[in-house]
Structure formats: structure tokens, C-alpha cells
Records
---
Amino acid sequence: MSEQQPPGPGVVYTETTIYAAPETFLQDAPYQIAIVELDAGGRTTVRILPAKEGGAAVRIGDRVEFACFRGDIHFYRKSS
Amino acid sequence: MRQVAVVGIGKTPFGAFPDRDLRGLAAESARKCLADANVQPSAVQAFYLGNFAGPSFIGQSHLAPYVAASIGVTGIPCTRFEAACASSGAAFFHAWSAVAAGAYDVVLVTGVEKMTSQPSPRVTEILASAGDLGGEIRAGATFPALFAMIARRHMFEFGTTREQLAAVAVKNHANGARNPDAHLRKPITLEQALAGRPVADPLTLFDCSLVSDGAASVLLAPLERASEFASKPAVIRGVAQTSDLLALDSKRSITSFAAVRAAGEKAYRMAGVSPAEIEFAEVHDCFTIAEIVAIEDLGFVRKGEGGPYSAAGCTALDGEKPVNSSGGLKSKGHPVGATGAAQICDVVLQLRGEAGERQLQRHSLGLAQNLGGSGASCVVTILGAP
């Protein structure tokens, strides 16, 4: 059981797909991150679940929701 | 407060120099600076070093006395300033404060970074440490990614285009080709800029500044003593350092930097000039979008008009408001800790009329804007001919 509370849904405020990754995430590249404007208020920076794992790329204005924690990274996915 | 002048400047070329170390680069720029002013190292009363990540890049800490000894300066206060990409801007600001307040008469500011000894993914990681490690960096953001997200939002809010971003790169490469000290002296076409390898969408390699080695130094003294030095003095008419929240997702707006607007307003007020009166500027184009946001935040154009203004050629050498006549961080190079001091050197060269092939016609009032991280630190300086 994770002790972390799953964060709430929101809207993509901005996003980018990273091709030149830092040392720690070299094996993940390319990957997409986004700043999400949370319905509950405030913004947070998250990773977007990739297509190969059942996710999809997102754009500004898309509704997104929490998908999973991986380590301490928050993954979000496009809301259906 | 006393009026303060820049009475000496000195720079190394910027580039990838596998055979040169941090200390040697810093010492070369400082020696050139002292020679420019025609003073001995013994005249220096305090030494302020701007350096972002020497401990990470080369493993050496306690850098200020380490560097100072190689310049021949010992015994005096030697202090390192770190404010990410605004490190030597911050060192310059505090040197100005000390001289203006009367604490010292002669202060040497040196900015230096030795970056190219590390492989790219490691450099990316070290640069990212200027962001918020607990939030955006944990999610996998890189520095290009933070500015890519700014670019995306700027495009969304104002209709800024890829072509307008690329126009900034083309212009800065054209300017850098005229600068003998620039890292990349290579003009590029709009087509090349648009077809660059993707780094973080929508930014390509051509939207990103360079990873460089280099150093720059500036000597400050009270204006009333400026005639004792050999060089033509430049008067610091306005200068301000400001700060803001570190993380991009904590800022209210990301298409405008509150710290830049505040620093600009303070510096303009101190100098008693308006943005329209500034004849030329060196702004912090760590990425092409950063130059567009900077000219908006500094009031050269209205919000959202930076893209069209740049694409129309208004910021070119022969434009109405030349920006980054040195080639900017994009082409001159961006040894992070050296950049703020190098911008001051480039503004002073223009004021003196010593900028060679890139000399501007109107050159009596210039501005330098040095940005730290994704806008958490900013230093704006307005310099004029005496």
C-alpha cells in the first residue's frame, strides 16, 4: 500500500516532449511532461503516461487525471 | 550613494577548450580587465566571483580564493556568488552596491564556467539542478523543457510561431559571426533553424544556447575616480537584482517573468529613462523564446508582440532596437557563470565604440538583462557613456 494520496484531476496548462534527457532518465526518452492546472487549485508538473503503456500524448487544454506513481514520479493520462 | 563606473573589461573567447581549466580562464579575463584599466592586482580591494556549478562541473569548491590567487589577489575579501545563469550578474550587482555605499573603491568581478569537460547528459543534469528538484526536475524536466513549456504557452496565448523563434536564432548567429570571441561564428538560415534536431518540443538544437567554457571580468570604481584609470569609463546609470519563486509551476504566469519586469522597472527608475530611450540591449537568450519574453518584459514591445517584432528584423544590428549584437548566448556562447559579466563587457564595448564589425550606430545608452534559472533571479543594468 502506498502512503501517498493520489493527486486530483486537472487541465494541461502547458507541455513538452523531451528528446534530450538528463542522465537519470536517458532510458525514458523521448517522454512527455506537463504542467497541470489542478481542479483543486494550484499547478503541478507531471509525467504523461506514454502510448506504449496505454497512454496518449496531450495538448494544452486537455483534461487529465492521475494514472500511477512510479517511484516518486506522478504519471497522468488523458481523461476519457 | 556614489555613482559607480565600469573602468575595465576583459574576456576570454568563449568555446569548447579541452586544454584549459576554470582557473586559467578566469585569470586570463581578469588580467585583461586589469590591463584595460592599467592597474595592478594590488589595487583591487574586493573580489566577487560569479560561478554557477564549479563544484559539480570540476569538483572544486571554495572557488573565489582559488581563482583570486591565480590573478595575484590575496588577503582581501574573496566571495563566490551563485544565482544559476545570473551568477555573475549577481556578483556585479553586489560589487556595485559595495562601491556605491563607499565600502570599497576598486572591486573586481569575474564570471567563469568550465562546462565542456562533462558529457551532455551530465551537463543537462547539472543545469537542471537550477530548477526545483522536488517538483519539476523530479518529473523529468530539463532546462530546455522548462523553456519549451514557456514557448508552448506563449504560442497558445499570443500566436507566436516556430518561424518567429527561429528568426531570433538566425539573427543572433548573424551577429555572432561578426564577434571574434564568439563560440559559433556561423550564420544559419531560417530553413536550417526550423529543421534542427528536436531537444524539447517545440525547441530544436537551434533554439538552445551553447554549452561553453569561458570567463569575463569587469572592474568597478566610483565615477569620481574614473579618470585615474586608462580606459574610457561607462557609467552604471541603473541596476537592480530581483527574485521570484523557483519552480515554473509555482509562478502565476509563465509567459512573463515577474522578476524581469520588476528589475527593469527599478533600473529604469534609477536611471531616469524609459524603455524607448534604451538604444541597444544584451538580453538573456538562453533559448530563443527567452529573448522574445525578455524584450516584452523589458517594455521594448507590448506583451505578445515579441515574436512578430523579432521576425520583422527590428532587433537586428540595423533594426530600431538592436538586441544581442554580440551574438547572445545563442552564438557567442553561454558559460553559465560568465554570462552576466560578459553581457556587461559587450555593452561597454558598444558604448566605447570598440565593437568592431558589429559596432552599432547609436551606442550611448545600453541595457543588459541577466536571468537566473526559469526566472527566479534577474539582474538588469543600464549603462551609459559618461
---
Amino acid sequence: MNVPAHGAARALAPALLLLLGVACSKHDKADPAAYTALANRCATPRSGIDPYTGARYPDVQGTADDEKTWLRRWTDALYLWYREVPASDPGAYATPQDYFAVLKTPQLTTSGAAKDRFHFIYPTAVWEALSQSGVEAGYGAQWVVLSQKPPRSIVVAYTEPNSPATTASIARGTHVLTIDGVDVVNGADVNTLTAGLYPLAGTTHTFTVQDAGAATTRTVTMTAANVPAQPVQDVGPLPGYPAVGYLLFNDHLATAELALAHAFGQLATSGVTDVVVDMRYNGGGYLVVASELAYMIAGPTVTAGKTFERTVFNDQYTTADPVTGDPLTPMPFLDATVGLSAAPGQALPHLDLRRVVVITGAGTCSASESVINSLRGVDVQVILVGDTTCGKPYGFYPEDNCGTTYFSIQFQGVNQKGFGDYADGFVPGGSGTAGVPGCLVPQDDFDHALGDPAEVRLAAALQYLSTGACPGAGVASSALSAAPPAAAAIVPKSIWQQNRIYLR
Amino acid sequence: MTRAPVRRGSIAVAAALWIACRTAHPAPASPDAPARIVNPTSESRAALEAAVREALQGAPVTLADDALTHESVLVLERTPARGPDGLPLSGRETRPPERFRLVKRGPECLLVHEGDGRLFPLPAVECEPERR
């Protein structure tokens, strides 16, 4: 484990240098005419200046049929599984958005799940909105909605430091029982529940809560604010385990770049020989942050000249990115900061680990899964402890047309070995190509703090590191019996209030 | 004055571009000192938000109440959007964030938009050089 001093020039990986001429020059896109001819021909064109580009909206008067035809052509050109999209009559669908819903593969994965679970639309004006990195309106308490329908169950997964929640002594495991007088468990006033859970900044709401392990309830009143998230928390050797480092990594935000560099610098000087990266609630974000994290875990020896992730589009585009026109050059393991939040070109610390434990859950998704896959691609032993990950080796370039932004899977990420087939998620302790050594621990233990060696998933990780075996049922039974079911243990971190809380 | 749209970047090239262009073309040396806001008020917060919006062609932004009070760099990224399953719609983000710096030039507090180098005076803001 070492932290050599690197200059900025040293920090530029050779693979990146090769890309410079490419990146700083213009390229022709791969014949986009087939799907751009009808772009921006709208049934209801927008007018004026687009605040996100500074240019006039490109919309011109068209028809809903124009929008549907554009969708079909765009799908035929760029959708990863374009050959599997059934023929359908656009006239049978009332709106372009309705038509888009069927422009995807109907096939299933080997588990029986839909092959494409990531087919979305979003209002462009909302999608393009900007926030200070990690800032969201709320209390700084990250809820887990274990059951959206009655009998509902809502518990706190973690909190942000110096937030309204921590001021009110809200902590992991706190159960929410009422919001502004409405019963969370069975109440019918879902609008009040939603307004309290996902508030506007400056609004005040009153909660009845029951803290983890408490026999009684208490009432707290919190005023929502624009709270900045700290994406990396609880960094350091574990209490009682000085050789095992831990960090809770919740979001691949821009601010995580600097926070992760600090965290690994701290771990590098602390003498740890194993690290547990807790990404159970990390749904992804900046892919460059994932690459930097993987590098800091593995170090230069095993990553130099290797692929962190290679992007694969459909078979019509094998040499160039069809959207940007850039060559399909693999992303390397980044050994220096790119300047998201840290100064650019700063050499990253590295631990040179040959094994790492990642704590996972159903919310471990996308860029977080890329960390796992990339390390396995260069033969770093990844040990997973927790629940099966979400299964999203895919990505897209969201596309605005007429005020709606469409999300249609366009590429798959694969590692150094060309592997990217984990659509059903990585399975801790599982078999098959997406099975990963470790322990399947579906229960999320809300009775213990994250980073507490007694927390069920972390305890299993520690035992696995020590003995190579997972805990028996009896070891974890007390905590498991107290834990709510984990099927819905995904933290819905931001506001997308539609369908968040259900009446029945 | 218009802002060049930065809508998308290919995955690998974006990483190279961020490093190369920022490392190869560092900001010119200047007497400006990196600064942070002190004694923030509702007026200073509004002034900061207005400057950021002006830099971004009027786009609405969400800032923390303590923005630029702890450090001199302000990073903006797309407000996280999630689907009904609670997972991010785009978990592989490639578009670079918008970055601003607060500097103190003489008695003035200036907000620098790193994307195009424009300066925005903040007369309603009190700032002091950032301690290193």
C-alpha cells in the first residue's frame, strides 16, 4: 500500500494521452440523418430561449405523427436491441409518449424479468434542472420506503451530517409513524404523506417517530432546507478491526471525487490491509468517479493499460459512438482526478488491494456495478456481501424531442474481459457468470448504524474476511428477525413524487 | 452572450477531455485569491443565485444555504432524477458539471464561471480569502 507523489503529467495515463487529439478535434457523427430528419417537429412547439443551451428552442410546427415517426427512427437507429422491437401501429397510441412505451424489447432475462427495465420519459425542463452537487430539498434523512402500500413501512436508512434530521436526533432505524397527523401505516391522505416526506425547502412538518430500539415514540418538527449530501461517510479502520478499513459511499456525485480521494488518502496512511466499501444505497452517477474509485482500490500495477469499461452499441455502430461521433475507445482506470470537484490532474492515492469487499443491495446500481465489474475484469477479487444488485450494465444518451426527454437503452458497458452480462444483477455468493464470491444477506439491518461491526451485512463481511465462510443462520438471527424485509430497501433519494406513496 | 451547449460527451473521450483541456490550458496567473463567503445573509444568497442563473442563461438552480461558505468552488450538476423504483434514471452520467469559483480581487468578491471565464461581481456578498 503506498501513495507515491505524482505530477500532473505523470497522472495522465498513456491511454488518455492517445485520446487528446481525438477529444480536441471535431468528428462527423455516424450518419444521424436517418433519425434527425423529423427531430423537433412538434405538435406543440416550444418558443423562446432554452435556458439550458442559451439558444432558441429548435422546435417547429409539426404533428404528433411526426413525433411518433421520429421515435421509431431514433429507436431503429440507436436502441441496443433494435432488432427485437415489435412492429406496431403508431396510430393505435394516443400520444408519442404512449407509443414510446412499446418501442422496446419484449424479451425476458434468464430470471424471467423484463430484459429492458429502464425505458423512461421525463419532462425535459425537469430533467435539465441543475443543483449544487448533492443538494436536495429535505431534512437530510434518507428514507427507505419498505412498503408503499398499506400497511406501509418507512424507515431512515442514513442521515446527512449537520442536517435538520440530525438536529432532531433522527438516525438510521428511526421509523416514521405519522406525518402532520396522518397515519403512515394505513392513512388515506397520501398527499399529506408525500408532502411531508419529500418537502419543499422552507416548509415545516411534524412527525411521530420511533427510534431504533426505543419502546416509546416521540414527536419531532423539522423545517426542510436545501441540504448538501456528503457522499462519502464513516471513513476509517473499523472499531476493533484496525486492519479493516470501511467507507460508506452513497452517490457518485461530482463532490465524491474529492471526498473519495481524501478517504483513500486517509485509509492509505492508516495501515489497513482490507477495505469494505459500502455501496448498498449507491445507485450510480458519474462514471469517471467509479473509474477513479476502482483505481484507488486496485492501484497502478494491475490497472495500467487496462480497460475500466468499454462501451458497446448496437451492431450498426462498431467503431464510433453514434451520438457524438467519437471513436469507441475504452475508458481506462483513471489514476488522476478529472476535475469534477478536486483540482484536475491530481494523482490519486491507491491501496493496491488484491481483494475488496463491497456491501451491496437492490439499490446498488449502474456506475456502482461498474466498479465491481471493472475490478473483476483485472482479477481483483471482489467479495460481495448483501443483496443482489440492481442489474444495469446499460446506459443511454437521454434525448429531448418537443419537451419530452426519452431514455432508451443504447449501450452496454463491458470490462477488460469483455463481460457485461449481469442484467439480473450480481449475486453475492451466487453461481453462474454473475455470481460473485461472498455472502447473500438480503436483510438490511436497521437496528445498527452503518459502519457498526455488529450490523448484519458488515458482520458477515468481517466473518468472511476472517474465515472465508458466511455466517450461519444462528449468528445473525437476532438482527435478522428484527429487520424489515429488504425487498424494497432502495433509497428514493430525490423528488419524483408521482406514484411514490400509494393509497392501496 | 450565449453559452455553448454541453449536452453530452462520449464516455472515454469525456474523461480525457476534462483532464487534457484543463491541465493543458490552466487558468492564467492572476492576483485573485480563492475566497469563501462570510456572514451570509438572505440578500447575499439571492445575489449568488442570481449570478449563477445569469451565467447559465437564466436556468433555475438549487443552491444550499451555505454555498461557498466552506470552500471557494461551487459545483452544479443535473438535479438527480429517479424513476418510480427509486433508482437514478441515468446511473452513468457523462456530462461534465458546471463549475464556479469565488475569488477576492481587492475589496471585490467575484464569481468566476469556469466554463467560459466570465466574471460576475457580487457586491452584496462579503468574502474573505480561503484558508489553505
